[in-house]
Amino acid sequence: MATKKPAAKKKTSSKKGGTIRCQKWTAIHDFMPPGTPTLRVDGVCFTPTPGYKIKLVPAVPQGINPLILLLKKVVTPPTGIQPQVITKVPVHYEKKTKTKYTHVTILPDGTTIKVQNVT
Description:
Layout: E1 10-13, E2 19-30, E3 38-47, E4 53-58, E5 68-76, E6 87-96, E7 103-107, E8 111-114, E9 116-118
Parallel strand pairs: 2-9, 5-7
Antiparallel strand pairs: 1-2, 2-3, 3-6, 4-5, 7-8
């Protein structure tokens, strides 16, 4: 019986030369009433120093498949001198939408997450 290997952790180089590693991505689309359905994407990144800001924004243009949401990871490095301490940075994106996305892809890493629907 073959076992499935865990997905490799994606690494991104920051502008200051450090490596940023992101993992534990989830995408949950909440269709429970009341209100408009909400898609939430969460993950955690590890940066080489404190002070990094990481956010997800919709990629422009989106891809050819309208059911796959493309999000671009935007990394803003800290200014000034920072201690060399690996720091955990939570990343969150939220969008009110009725579009039933099947997957979310995080760019430039290329990580694709299956969307879990809550109904």
